[in-house]
Amino acid sequence: MARGIASAGGRKCGLYAASGGAAIPVTGTVYAWGANGTGELGQGTQDFNNHPIPMLALSPGDPSGTGYLTGVARVAPAIFHTAALKGDGTVYTWGIDEASQLGYTNTNASYCQFHANCQTTAKMVSGLGGVEAIAAGHGHTLAL
Asked: What is the pTM (predicted TM-score) of this model?
């Protein structure tokens, strides 16, 4: 995983990269771009994006009221799915769910190009609280 400093919308961001890119500005809103065949950018589609676009959250109770995934402290990208750790210790996941790596029953998933369920917007993993760290790999997600 590459890390560094980038700019999204004129703001300094932490940069994390796997198959796509993701940046977290000071506001904690996650921006992503690049490959997106399994919804791993979390933007509600499976379309490729060549510029930073905010990630969408499925949670209607998002305190920002924008529908975007906000308050994020860390992002853990894998090849075809992504996990985010919010500052409040909750975890959100999205992307392909071929091995149940998203951590929830994916009832609203779309059919994606790799013949598995895809969650194209961030969804909170229930049953987790007080999480301090996350990691993601091919077919799995970890929370500490």
From this structure: 0.76
Per-residue pLDDT 10s for the chain (144 aa) are 333 333 334 433 344 434 445 555 556 788 888 888 888 888 888 888 888 888 787 654 554 545 788 888 999 999 889 999 999 999 999 888 888 899 986 555 566 666 568 888 888 898 888 999 999 998 999 999
| Burial call 82-101: b when 16+ CB within 10 Å, e when fewer | bbbbbeeebbbbbbbbbeeb
Please give the domain boundaries of the chain with CATH numbers for all domains: 2-143 (2.130.10.30)
Q: Residue 113 pairs with which residues in a beta bridge? A: none
Nearest to 55 by CA among 78, 100, 25: 25
Q: Distance between alpha carbon 55 and the CA centroid of its chain, in Å?
A: 7
The neighbour count for residue 36, using CB atoms within 10 Å, is: 23
Q: What is the C-alpha separation between 29 and 97, in angstroms, rounded?
A: 23
